[in-house]
Amino acid sequence: MKDAKTISRAVINRIPKYYRFLCGLQRNGTQKISSGELASLMGVTASQIRQDFNCFGGFGQQGYGYNVESLINEMSDILGLGVSVPMILIGAGNLGRGIANSLDFGKLGFELTAIFDSDRMFTGLKVRGLPVRCFDELEEFCAVNRPRAAILCEQSGEVRETVLKLTELGIHTFWNFTQYDIDDVFPGITVENVCLSDSLMTLSFRMKNG
Amino acid sequence: MKDAKTISRAVINRIPKYYRFLCGLQRNGTQKISSGELASLMGVTASQIRQDFNCFGGFGQQGYGYNVESLINEMSDILGLGVSVPMILIGAGNLGRGIANSLDFGKLGFELTAIFDSDRMFTGLKVRGLPVRCFDELEEFCAVNRPRAAILCEQSGEVRETVLKLTELGIHTFWNFTQYDIDDVFPGITVENVCLSDSLMTLSFRMKNG
């Protein structure tokens, strides 16, 4: 594999999609697939698939097709899915609860270990079997359990302060669902921003200007 | 404004972010801003902002700065936020309920008018004040109320069939949260795919190869 830092964001963003497609193929009994077949299923070009795969060492011998199971295993390794990183959720409102309850974190490289909300209204509520904790417990929890990633689902405007506090507690990886873009504000952290309202506005634009 | 079809996806994806930033500035009392100031706040270059804005007609006189309120109004028009398109939600599970309850659809160009789930376990449950309906009611509801967009939050593997049925009922705009990429399968529809598991896998890769 190339140095991960030299692989473009566009390529990195496509790897989970390849992985997802290949898992679907495996469920349907496919054992071997050519880049051409995979390309036509995914609506991309075979050349793009070969170029993308080459960033990670190629995954197989050209002309012979790819072994689906090996490809899945190699991609799982690359994506780090076999290593469960302890992750906490900040914000137990509607969206936070929806995300906590709908994803299979264990299959995606993480383990949800605690849920916090600054609003004491939620304290003690069980979400996915975990009791919602108040912010007062955050410091001690992190000292003892050392979570390394956080999902940010706070609705309020204090995201900046929360991120600052979490970085001091050793968390530098964020899955950010808030309205605040945090990547440029805090250097040295890893962030995936998922701004649902941006996505819906983009859909509005595309529909109304289609 | 240029023909919307000639504006690149990258530019279109940035417009909601500009809009969101500008609304934040307006809440803080800012009335005027230069492209340089906006660029530094958003972590992009002033030249990118000017180029992006030029796709939509420029929005102001170079050298004099932008009037924040006018810019917000023009972007709102471009994004079509003033026109509420009736939208239905398919899938009243954890993620569907989380999305239905956490977004201000009215401010984002849509109105959530009904919720459907194929699982009768959910029938009658109230989500955001709307009763969850069973699939049997879909056809009549669409004939009477003419929704034009759908949020897809089904967990099962029948997304393709659902999309096919919905297109027959006059819905061609989809906000897709399922594991199934539908844009290439059905030509002539408008889709925004939000695949949360892809996003979390990307975060896993970036954290573990950082």
Walk me through what this model shows.
- The structure is a homodimer of 210-residue chains.
- Chain A is an alpha/beta fold.
- Chain A has helices at residues 9-27, 35-42, 46-54, 68-79, 94-102, 138-145, 159-168, 196-208; strands at residues 32-33, 66-67, 85-90, 110-117, 126-127, 130-134, 149-152, 173-176, 190-193.
- In chain A, the strands form 2 sheets. Chain A has a 7-stranded mixed β-sheet with strand order 5-6-4-3-7-8-9.
- The first copy, chain A, starts with 8 loop residues before the first helix and ends with a helix.
- The relative contact order of chain A is 0.09.
- The mean pLDDT of chain A is 91.
- At the A-B interface, α1, α5 and α8 of A face α1, α5 and α8 of B.
Sum up the structure in keywords.
homodimer; 210 residues; alpha/beta; seven-stranded mixed sheet; 8 helices
Report the biggest beta sheet of chain A as strand number plus sense, adding barrel if it closes: 7 strands, mixed
Order of helices and strands of chain A: HEHHEHEHEEEHEHEEH
Structural class of chain A: alpha/beta
Greatest interface and its residue counts? A-B, 61 and 61 residues
| Low-pLDDT sequence parts of chain A | none
Strand composition percent of chain A: 15-25%
Helix % of chain A is 40-55%
State the assembly state of the protein chains.
Answer: homodimer
Please work out how many helical segments of chain A DSSP would assign: 8
| Spatial shape of chain A | globular
Q: Span from first to last CA of chain A?
A: 40 Å
If you average the pLDDT of chain A, what whole number results? 91
Strand order of the largest sheet of chain A: 5-6-4-3-7-8-9
β-strand number of chain A: 9
> Gyration radius of chain A, to the nearest Å?
20 Å
